[in-house]
Amino acid sequence: MVYESEIQFTLDTICPWTYLAKRRLSKALSQLPADCPVKFTTVYKPYQLFPEASQDGQDKYEWYKTFRYNNSDDLMQKYTKVMSSYGEPEDIKFKFGGSVANTTHAHRLIQHYQETKGPETADRIVDSLYRQYFEEERHPSSDDTLLRAATEAGVDEGEAKKFIEDKDEGLMEVKMAVRQQAGNQVDAVPYIVIEGKRRDMQLEGAKEVQEYVSTLNKVIKESA
């Protein structure tokens, strides 16, 4: 009998560490044997790093330099080099232009299609949003970005466009979900909870692939 385990993955689509964590977790899951007695399903939970950010946004490079690195060119250059070095083994080609902006509507898209189309569609949407933002320097939550993510995930273009343009559909639900994560004491991302038969495993921050493999194997062992 196969035990079903939910992986609750709390993320923000403008957080580079959650992008790294997703890639590494995916690698770990791909290493499990075909006859694994546990079926893992990833469910995405919304979190906002900068809820006060506007929808229009502002220059990402300058924002990071000013608000995260004390307006220091040297510190900013070190950051870009470090993130690039982390991204390379995961086949992520980080770029640092584009805009930092509010991610409410990106989360609205993920949650809506996670509920209506299922986890595989949500997973493809998340992949597209990450790639567009971090590797193509596209706006994180513009209508064009969201539509591209939805269609790349296999959603009908007309259906997706109708949902994206109705800014109120699912808005209250996603705001409540963000508040719920805060109420669950989530104050940083990535935050991952892997449900187990005996206990849940919690992982905070972007871990190495082997740590994800080890944690998954603990869940498998305790589910026997």
From TrEMBL:
Q: Which InterPro entries match?
A: DSBA-like_thioredoxin_dom, Thioredoxin-like_sf
What region holds the DSBA-like thioredoxin domain?
A: 7-216
| Pfam families in alphabetical order | DSBA
Q: Which domain of life is it from?
A: Eukaryota
Instruction: List the GO molecular function terms.
Output: oxidoreductase activity
Name of the featured protein: Thioredoxin-like protein
Organism of derivation = Neohortaea acidophila
Q: What is the lineage of its organism?
A: Eukaryota, Fungi, Dikarya, Ascomycota, Pezizomycotina
